[in-house]
Description:
With 67 residues, this protein is an all-alpha fold. Helices cover 75% and strands 0% of the residues.
Amino acid sequence: xxxxxxxxxxxxxxxxxxxxxxxxxxxxxxxxxxxxxxxxxxxxxxxxxxxxxxxxxxxxxxxxxxx
Length: 67
């Protein structure tokens, strides 16, 4: 973590101290949801590259295509 990241987190942490308990819970839920959403988007991005999933060998795939 960079010094800048630490400063940003410290600033946000100071802002959160003034929130009520229920607002903090809501914030945690939203942050958690955004992390899950980002992971899903990231996984979809990486799934779009590379080979497709198959148990067949390259030769079997070529043979199937030629038929």
